[in-house]
Sequence to fold (331 residues):
Amino acid sequence: MTIEEDAEGLACQALITFLLEKNYAFVCISPESQEKVVRKRACRSDTRNSTNLEDFFGWSLPAEENVLRDLLPVRILDLLREASVVTVGDDRLYRSKFRVSSFYMPDIEDSLSLTRLYHVHSAFPTTQWNSVFFGPDTYLFLDYLSSVTNRVPARTPRTIVEICCALDLNPKALSVGIMNARFANTQVLFVESDLFSAMKSQDDIDLIVSNPAYISSSALDVPTHALGAPLSGLALPLRVVDESVPLLADHGLLIVYTAVPIPHQHPGDDPFLEHLRKVVEATLISYKILHPDVFGEELSSPAYAHVGRIQAVGAVLRKREGRLVTAVARV
Fold:
């Protein structure tokens, strides 16, 4: 970690502690929805700039200096400015390079709702090539993980690998991930890697979890690390499956959250499910459609010319024992 990143992390740590004291809460919405809210507020002089913490660190609205000094203690504002987390523009308005979102969705029946945890990610709009994402898709992913914890063996996994967060090609995502792990008081080793390529040990992994990029777009405003490449975004999720399963220990689990392009001419087809059923080395023990229609705005892209909808899914695969794999392969 560089000196600049460490200063950034310390400033954000002080901010997170302060936001906890203030009971800050912000549920992050999709970029399209946030754009509508920001554009709507920009039409009125009394709503276009920040008036509270959620405006500044959630909606990414600019703030006048006097307002920001009323919202933040001098010490924290100075730390944020020294670390360039908060900057001032030519218009003399201050802006944050990060958003801070509530990590858990409110749930009065779930004890997790009592756990106030925040997630730092890129400010809106997320148009830079190395933007760090968080939003409705992440909430679906987290909810799915909570629902499949019963699939994890009772014994603590020896090795857990998370792809596209702890292992990632985006250096900025890794540095922000280090900060967020620190905020959650969790020890995670972050590695810049193309899937498993940079891992020193690549076998006998007990649990692999992945939420790979799955958007296929030629649009200039879609950051590089958000793209799932060919096959209407399905290429990277398929690669995650094919490269993960061989590295699992016997009975190890692969948990994948992704989205699947469903062809409009064959709305009953699911190319991801078909692929999972053909994996020889693992058994598909769970497959669930979590949302039938996500990222509908992408359907107008040429990459989705044949697609009728994009559905979010979650899947769990269990590695077969070595001798069973040999037997199945011979059948």
Notes: The radius of gyration is 21 Å. Confidence is low (pLDDT under 50) at residues 219-228, 326-331. The chain has ten helices and eleven strands.
